[in-house]
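Q: How would the C-alpha cells look for this protein?
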Amino acid sequence: MENKAINNDTIWKDTKGNEILAQGGDMLKVGDVYYWFGAEFVGNSKFCNIKCYSSKDLINWKFENNVLTRQPSGNLAKDHWIGRPSVIYNCTTKNYVMIFEWNSPGVPRNRVAFAQCSTVTGVYNWVGSAIAEGRSFGDMAVYKDTDENAYLLTVMDEGLDLEDGKEVNYSLAIFKLQADYCSLKGKVFEGFEMSKREATYIVKKDEVYYWFSSDMRGWESSETKYSTAVNLAGPWSTLKIVANCPNTHNSYNSQHDFIITVQGSDTTCYIYCGDRYSNFHGIGTGRYMWTPLTFIDGKPKIQWFPSWNVDATTGIWTESNRELS
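A: Here is the predicted structure in C-alpha cell form.
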C-alpha cells in the first residue's frame, strides 16, 4: 500500500511491506532518486547487513540490496562491528565509495573503513581501513563539498589503548579524503571542546557550514546541538542547542543521524532524520523520526509533526494540507 505522508511514531515499511532496517545511516541522491543506506542489527546490536533503499518521493521506499554483508570470516566477519555508513560518488574513478566504522576483535574501538562499487545498489567490495595519529574513532559521517573534495567527519578518541586511561569521544574532527575517497589525506580541524559527542553531520546553507551532533547517550535519545563556520578548518562557534517546536529535551525521542537537503524547483527544504533506537531501549514506537528542519535568521529549528508531507520535486513541505515551508 502506497504511503501518502511521512508518518512518525510508527513502524516504517518498504514497498513490499517489510520493516525498513537502516539505522545509523546516510542519504545519497543520484539523478531524481534518493538512496538510503543504513545498518541492520540483530540481537544485542550485532551488525548484520548494510541495506540500501530507494525512493523518488522520500515517502515510499523500495528495498534494493544488502550492499555490505557480514561473512563467516575476512574483513567483514560476523563478529565485527560495522556502522555509520555513508556513500558518495567519485566523478573521477566513476565509483561509489562507502565509508564506515569498522571494528574487529582485539582492536580497541573503531577504524575508518572503505569499500567501493561501480553501481550505487551493487555489492561493495572491501578496499581497506585506517586510523589517524595512533587514535581510534567513534561515530562518523562524510561531507562532500561543491568542489568535489570529500571529508570524513568523525568523533576522535584520545588514544588507541583506551584501557590506559584514555578518553572515548574526546573530540570532533574533520579529515580530508584522498582524491579517490578511499583513504585519509590529512586533518583539517579538531575541536577538543567538542567532547562527548556522537552522530556527526554537516550541511552547508548560504555559505555557512552547520555541524550537527548528538549527546553521548549510547542507544538513548538526546538533544541535538550544532556549531557553525564559514570554513571547514574553522574557527567553529561554540555548540548551541538546536531549537525545537514544540519544546523537547531529546529531539522527540531520537538521536540525530543525518539531514536531507531537498533542492526543489520552487525552494530548498531540509529534513531532520533521527534514529529512534526503540529496538534497544524500548521507548517509543518505530526506529526513525523525520521532521522538517527550518532555518530562521541562521538558526536551525526542528519542527515536530506526527504526520506531514514533502514534495521532492518542488521542495515544498506541508502539514494538514497547509503550506508551512
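The two ends are 27 Å apart (CA to CA).

The longest strand covers residues 33-42.

Upvote if useful.
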